[in-house]
Fold this sequence. Notes:
Layout: E1 3-14, E2 17-28, E3 32-36, H1 43-50, E4 58-63, E5 70-73, H2 85-90, H3 94-111, H4 117-132, H5 135-148, H6 165-179, E6 183-187, H7 195-206, E7 211-215, H8 219-225, E8 228-233, E9 236-241, H9 244-293, H10 295-313
Parallel strand pairs: 3-7, 3-8, 5-6, 6-7
Antiparallel strand pairs: 1-2, 1-4, 8-9
Amino acid sequence: MLFALKVDNVAKDWNGKRLFEHASLQVSMGERVALIGRNGVGKTSFLDGLIGRTTFDEGVITRGVPLNEWGWVEQQIHVDQDMTLFDFVHSAHQKLSQLKAQMAHMQQRLEMGVNDQQVVDEYLKQMDTYADMGGYEYERSVEVALKRLGLNASLFSVPYAQLSGGQKTRAQFAKLSILQPQFLLLDEPTNHLDAEMLQWLESWLISYPGSILFVSHDRHFIDAVANTTYELTPAGTKAYKGGYTAFRAAKDMELRTQQSLYHKQQQERKALLEAIQRYKQWYERAHHAASERDPVAKKKHKNMPRVLWQRNAH
């Protein structure tokens, strides 16, 4: 099966401390993979390494889907303070977004009273180019994407930076729904979402045609979405088929197997010690019996205290 992403034996250090090592992972085309692990193990650092935001200290990353075909949802992203919600989602189409920004700048100059025919001609030319590229139809698709995620028109002009956590997450998904990248990378995508939006997100991801790798603490969400679950620990990664419930069942089985093995090893150790003790006792009894049957050894043993006394006397 073709893979969208393959990670082999990566390791990451942070402030002189190793977060994890021997971490390997594979996401096949069309597969939905959850990455779980305790807090502080380095899950976000792992994701940052995948997109090149940070570098791994060891290991190899092979991307079956090129990075420019990736899309991601993050807990914290940098957005210009003045960028509105609408413009943030609109920026999914880079060329149209740049052209729209140029048009806005030209319009601002004209509204300020700049009476320059060259500026007017350039503005009209940009409008024609924007229309020819489907810019106005694209704006309608942005509106539809925003409203589908519960972000109504009254929020379109609000700066992204002033939105609530849940609104920011919805805005990121609205942008992704327009981009439709081949690979999705999601860091805690369920944060700040209500039940209705969670249901929408689950349905959208399950029907998503591309590959998905996500980090989440939401067990129900993992069960609903993931085909495969990887656990990240300081010692590496391990894959489990299915969602969180399947992972938990497999971990419990591993624990019971380890406990059974430990118990068996303890029993075998106890039996070995008992066998050694029995052999020691048998040897001592056999040695004593042999001494009783050997007159020379018996006489030597009987005279030993006298010999020792004579030596000490000298």
